[in-house]
What does this fold into?
Amino acid sequence: MRARLVFAVVCLASSLAGAEESAHQVEGPTAKEPRAEGPAAKDAAVKVPPTWSVGAGVGYGTVSLMLMSPAGTNLGVLGMSQGTLSVEHAQGAHDWLLLSVSAGYGSQTTPSAGLGSNSSNLDREDTGKSIGGFVGLRHIFTDQQVVEVSGWLGIGGSWSESKTSYTATYPLTGLTSTNRWSSISALAGLAFDRRLLEGMYLRLNLSVLQAGRSWGLARQSQTPDVESSGTNLGLRLAPALELRMVL
It folds into this structure.
């Protein structure tokens, strides 16, 4: 009787061990299948689009044709280098919120010999400086192209100063003329982006239109200051070249 009981226990244990082994053989690959599919699923997943973009560059010169300005209709060329810095945040597949700032400085000295025979005793020095910035929205027109074309609208402000000094080469009173301008304007422009590397772009940024309000102060030696204000409306071509990275 005892022998039969031992035999039955041994058979039951052997049967349970065989069933557990069979279950491992069936379930093992099935349990590992999600792990095998993991890399494939990761490769097939859509990449998360960038949400931030930063850029820095340099611009030179501003050509403006103002149909309305405090000084009347005028054409001006300001030869001043400017450094630019901008940050963008994605608002969708084709829209970016834009913040841009710029600052510039320029100086040029003309010896007395270059001012004509009537001014042979004077040296002339021209200096200029400016600072400005704006916020706006940029919309992409041609996505996934070799050159991406977009347009932007913004509103911002600027301050600039130009100063001309005449210095006597022998003891005479020097002359100084200073003009300061500040403005609040709406701006519009175009941007052309060319991909260089993964996540890196070269952008040509071009301001096109300007409309706003300006305030000016003209100051000359031994004369009263002259203040002016008025509306600005016209073309403003200010090219800048930027190197950009998307994050």
